[in-house]
Amino acid sequence: MDYKATLNLPRTEFPMKANLPQKEPERLAWWERERVYDRIQEARNGSPRYILHDGPPYANGHIHIGHGLNKILKDIIIKSKTMAGFQAPYIPGWDCHGLPIEHQVTKQLGPKKKDLSAVELRKLCREYAEKFVEIQRDEFRRLGVFGDWEHPYLTMDHAYEAAIVREFGKFVEKGRVYKGLKPVLWCTVDQTALAEAEVEYENHLSPSVYVKFPFTVLPAEMGSDQRLGLPTVKKLKAVSAVIWTTTPWTLPANQAICLHPDFDYAVLQAGEEAFIVALGLVDAFAKACKIEKFEVLGKKKGKEFEGWTCHPPFAKKEIPILNGDFVTLEQGTGCVHIAPGHGMDDYLLVLKYNKPPYVEMLPDRKPLEILVPVNNAGRFTDDFPEFAGQPVLEANPGIVEVLNARKLLVGEKRLEHTYPHCWRCKQPVIFRATRQWFVSMEEADLRQKALKEIDKVQWIPERGRDRIYGMILNRPDWCLSRQRMWGTPIPVFSCQGCSTPLTDSKVIEHISVQMQESGADIWFSRSAQELLPQGTTCVQCGHGSFKKEHDILDVWFESGVSHAAVLRPQGEGWYPADLYLEGSDQHRGWFHSSLLTSVTTDEQAPYRAVLTHGFVLDGEGKKMSKSAGNVVTPQEIIKESGAEILRLWVASQDYQEDLRISKEILKQLTDAYRKVRNTCRFLLSNLYDFEPGVHSVPHADLPELDQWALWRLGQLIDNVKKGYAQFQFRQVVHELDYFCSTDMSATYLDILKDRLYTFPANSLLRRGSQTVLFEIVSSLATLMAPILSFTAEEIWQVLPESTVEGSKPMSVHLADFPRSPTVFQNPQLHTTWAYLFQVRSKVQFALEKSRRDKVIGSSLDATVILHATQPNSALLEGYLTDLPALFIVSCVKVEAVGSLPGGELVDASLGLTIEIVKAEGTKCDRCWNILQDVGSQTQHPTLCGRCVEALV
Description:
single chain, alpha/beta, six-stranded mixed beta sheet, four-stranded parallel beta sheet, 33 strands
């Protein structure tokens, strides 16, 4: 008789080989065909809502690995919140306006750009953005990300553009917006103002120069008691304040020198002249300027110099010495060259001194000028005729030569330091005062209100709070205007008669209504008269003719009002969002602009919690770049390994720090994935004849080993749900991996094989074990679903159908997380089985030694004799019938002893000595156990008694 045919050998449709790159597209098509995302929302209707608001990626180019990280993290959260009982809709979005798209379009057009109208150019930009929205949408879907992909939000949609204008109108209504001449970050290549979030700080080599500003009074007077009080000074040829700068090109715009009021400043004699420098920087100054012999004649507080005057290097006038707290002793001379047209600290200082009572101490009591002798292209204007037409950064060497020729250069070297560069063209930017639209950070206490809201938000990790707090605390007024065409226009008009801006919120609302219907192109296609309400006149002069503002709004303002454009229209429970999740750079970007817009219009933060992730580096921790040839793309990973491995990579990393990725890392994850998959395959392969509604055994009737497995499952469920709730996905992966490899494969399933394969198919013990296997694999499918979405669905679809109609949702993603089984709750049972598993581990070690010593072949060749002291011997005797299966041996004997005999297999902590001997009896042809009752039944002479019973 073929006894193998009588065994309950495993079988399943669930394949060992995943073939993820080929199978995943089929699953995606099934999800779409079955409307799984829509069904999830319908099924959760009425449940508590959880809103993760999507920060819009830029619609330019294919997605990169950072996009994949971001979208997969969001998807894990959305799915885990859904399975935890929330309704968690996800509306993806795209940032569609801005310079990169306009640049790409004009680059493709070449000389043809000159022949296009603004509307025609904007049409091409829209088509470009639409193209990449479609490309990226398909690429995001390929990652297994669920969402309302058919109805995303786009910042170029008419309704969104109208919302942008409407929110700007609220700023105007609250008096937060003004137009002024202020220094802003300026890209000379793209000829536009930049936000702080649009610059990157890279290493840059700059000239480092020390320049004399001679005092306007002669040394004889400088040495007098009314000035320095140093008679020695009277005999010198010159006395100068020395400034230090890395931007010599800003010296033509100089208006003053600033000293810290509380610092001591030295009068330093070198040869026949004296220099004024901070006392704390004298040695560093002398070394940098190679001054070997010098003497400090005296010192004076910075505040005592206030109002004194010097000669600037490039203008025939007097400039004052001012006081400011921003001066530091970190480097330089403690004397800061002030060019208010090229620096924010400089600008604010000059504003202060241009007002009473400080203006009284300025030369001729006249306000200082905000001078900017630099045009949009970053070239000197005729206001600096010596270098007119030259690019300012290229003019540095020539300016230094002039300083040297005029004997004003004290010292010079080259300095490598971090310097702001344009995020798009990668070229150094400059600070340049231009007339721009700004949001005031002080009006109506916007800064302080925003800071208070920061402390009401949960920041994950906590350091995110300090980062954004410092940025809000120290940021200047927000420059809203950009000198481009592809964006939402600033909806402001100026009077043709007196140039007074028409900043009327009612007029702006009138514009937004038109944009809602026809989009922002109307600003470029219609005249001011067509756009304005009929009868609009200037409140200043009564004139009725207006011209339109030419600038567009900062794209950070556009995305920053997404809470108003996307969340609020959805209705109650959407705003504020429960979570914003983006890269850590968004503390100065989207988190930042969203906070300021929401606090301005709604007096609260737009989010309850903010979670940030790091950046993706290569396997060696280096930044990825095409030139370095170390770029890893999601498309390559998907093609080779499948999106599932990429999802597992995201979940298994400490994503709050910078992450590493390489082929080696992905290979390790593929191996880990294979373990989980094979465990699930084993579970499924032993359920082919199991119907949950017919064969399930009540938990209370299960043997202790099966109850232990359910108890461990319960711990897994609790830990995994906790991990998801705390966004600790690496912990989730660890818990699943440990459960599958240790609790299941190495322990429970290993022990169970004999029962599953050789016991009668319908025996209570086998059906009980199948009950446990079914609950475990069902639970594993739901617990892994937010991360391993494809594999979980594959498992779900081959799970045995319950006979109870509708008890198994059609997709795993429609299921809830499982509840923890309430079994095995007695602490004494925990202690007992912890001991039994410790003994099992020691027995396995002893069996392996016996195998090496050729005492036995397989473990079933063995009899295990446990020499145990009390109370351990009594405990082991009580479980004697379970021990052969537990140890996977043919026979176990327990012998009580008063004391443990010697030997290498003694374990005093367990109170036993292990002895391995060859099992006595004959090997059963069916179960392979070596037993003494084999052949006791004449009709089956090669079987043991248990196997004979299984055949009846």
